[in-house]
UniProtKB/TrEMBL annotation, chains A, B:
PROSITE patterns: HTH_ARSR_2. This is Metalloregulator ArsR/SmtB family transcription factor. It comes from the Bacteria. Residues 27-116 form the HTH arsR-type domain. Keywords: DNA-binding, Transcription, Transcription regulation. Pfam families: HTH_5. The lineage of its organism: Bacteria, Bacillati, Actinomycetota, Actinomycetes, Micrococcales.
Length: 116, 116
């Protein structure tokens, strides 16, 4: 009796697919587009550090507290703008300083990712 | 009595920072680098759909079930390789087909992001 198990597994998988696989569902296309944009906004080390510092603050974070990430002020401003455009933070200018706060529900689209 | 509140707020903020602000902590640099790489691997609509379908499956997902995302098979293979390189999925070839499964703890680095 032949013991060629690999072809047997092949045939089983092929037969199962030929008979119509019932794949599990993943994220729908529209939801995946939205979540990918959010993740892209966060997928930078400096933006992550800026965002998590702002999010960890009760109330607002003064831009004067966001200068210690080893990048220039224009770079900080660029990253803050990206975070704002993605809906992750809000900003408000009051006089000399701009104040930032995390948008409370902004990370809600990540939930399905973590719940499988 | 003047009612120019904006300069008053300016002075308060400036005085507070001059006296030494105590900013909230964000992610440390090394952790931010690691998390940014993980988020970058997920920050694509097709990769998100592939990953969430694989993660939603109990056990393994045959590559033969990952062909309905409106992209070519080489593109699917490219995205699956990116997910594997990021440590999000494992793969095993058995005969004709490759089988994918989600790495259970791969999304753990996202937890601090969601917990503030």
């Amino acid at each position: 009796m032949p013991t060629t198990t690999e072809p047997a597994i092949d045939l089983t998988a092929a037969a199962a697919c030929a008979a119509g696989c019932a794949p599990a569902e993943g994220l729908p296309a529209a939801q995946a587009e939205q979540l990918a944009a959010l993740l892209k906004a966060l997928a930078d080390p400096v933006r992550l550090r800026l965002y998590t510092r702002i999010a960890a603050t009760t109330g607002e974070t003064c831009v004067c507290d966001l200068g210690d990430f080893g990048v220039s002020q224009p770079t900080v401003s660029h990253h803050l703008r990206k975070l704002r455009e993605a809906g992750l933070i809000d900003s408000e200018r009051r006089g000399t300083w701009v104040y930032y706060s995390a948008v409370p529900t902004a990370l809600a689209p990540l939930t399905p990712l973590l719940n499988g």
